[in-house]
Design a protein that fits this description.
mainly alpha; single chain; 70% helix
Length: 392
């Protein structure tokens, strides 16, 4: 699981709330993390592998949406591997981990492992949050026809750059002046928690707004494609809206427990004695949400693939096959350059106004296809209604 408490525990003079959750059934907690992360890792890889009888998922070259979805899954996979490795060491070498609590200890490897593994998990989770934010931005820009190959470079700079910057800044402030003598006090740890939860809160607040605007823009595109808004267009717009809803639902399910747990622990930290009987229910709630985090955080990778692509099946096809370029892989500029020559010569005398209308309709189809990528039924209906499909 991913929590700033993992980094806080690396300080020998950690706060009482962190000590409470980290010392609560550590064997059970690590076992839960290993089990959840392992299941999610295997199912995520199974989801991404090509399947027999299915054509590989393809996206237009001018879109970066498919790349972003793949990078989100990669962040989840690598983060899951970090959780498995960290929890395995904690279970397999309890004596090694016990040296973290030793003040002024001479062995630096336990502390180095604690910091390194926690930073690895936190960095990849933060990068996944930023990539999910980039996906919402890219979906909106695609519909507005402002996205292209150059935007993926900006997304890389923002996602990886901000994730690294915030992670390093939070760790530097937390471990000041040194790892063996971290400063005490809640104010000292606040910047670290802010840098950790800032991208998570950004996705929770901003992504629904961007998705809502994208759905509205999709409805306008579908209406303007043929001048009418038929049941087919309405159904396709609804499918895109449901897909965005699934993405946000998975995110809320996997990370709401973190926000609840952190709020409870901050409340306990502000109390003079967290072991008071009056705080028993709050302590129990904090420990329950702590275990829930160990289950839900690693499962995000698999649940996201379900939201992105749906269930892709068990039949894996590992044979190499030559990739065919479908009509979706051609950009609007290529279409304008007669990438699909007409089999009938007299069609070259079509009026320029009709060419512009056809190109605009093709560009609209490509934008909608980018958003409905992974939805086979939606893609098939879109392809059958496209001018290029009818031209064949």
């Amino acid at each position: 699981m991913a929590s700033p408490r993992l980094e806080t525990y690396c300080c020998p003079n950690r706060d009482a709330a962190t000590q409470l959750v980290m010392n609560f059934q550590p064997e059970v907690f690590c076992g839960v993390c290993i089990g959840s992360a392992s299941i999610s890792l295997l199912l995520t890889i199974l989801q991404l592998l090509p399947k027999k009888g299915q054509s590989p998922r393809k996206m237009p070259k001018a879109s970066s949406s498919s790349t972003i979805l793949l990078l989100i899954s990669i962040c989840d996979i690598l983060g899951g591997l970090g959780m498995i490795f960290r929890s395995s060491v904690w279970l397999g070498f309890p004596g090694f981990i016990a040296n973290i609590s030793v003040v002024n200890g001479t062995d630096v490897w336990p502390s180095a492992f604690c910091v390194g593994s926690a930073m690895w998990i936190q960095l990849l989770c933060s990068a996944g949050f930023w990539w999910l934010f980039c996906y919402a931005v890219d979906s909106y820009l695609v519909v507005r026809r402002s996205a292209g190959l150059s935007t993926i470079v900006l997304y890389h700079m923002m996602a990886w750059g901000l994730a690294v910057m915030l992670c390093v800044e939070g760790i530097a402030l937390l471990y000041y002046p040194s790892l063996s003598s971290c400063e005490n006090g809640l104010e000292h740890a606040v910047p670290h928690y802010i840098t950790t939860y800032a991208p998570l809160l950004l996705v929770l607040v901003v992504n629904p707004i961007l998705f809502r605007r994208t759905v509205s823009a999709v409805a306008s595109l579908l209406k303007g494609r043929q001048g009418i808004y038929t049941e087919h267009e309405r159904r396709l717009g609804t499918e895109i809206q449901i897909r965005f809803f699934k993405i946000m639902l998975v995110f809320v399910i996997c990370w709401s427990s973190n926000i609840i747990n952190e709020s409870l622990l901050f409340y306990l930290e502000m109390q003079p004695d967290i072991n008071e009987m009056l705080l028993k229910n709050i302590r129990s709630a904090a420990l329950i949400t702590w275990i829930i985090m160990g289950v839900l955080n690693p499962m995000q990778g698999f649940l996201f693939t379900l939201a992105f692509y749906g269930w892709t099946g068990w039949r894996v096809d590992l044979k190499w096959r030559k990739r065919e370029i479908p009509w979706e892989s051609m950009s609007s500029s290529t279409v304008g350059e007669n990438a699909y020559p007409s089999p009938v010569s007299y069609q070259s005398n079509i009026h320029d106004s009709k060419k512009v209308s056809t190109a605009d309709s093709q560009q609209t189809d490509e934008a909608i296809s980018m958003l409905s990528e992974g939805n086979t039924s939606g893609d098939d209906r879109l392809t059958r209604s496209s001018p290029i499909y009818q031209g064949w």
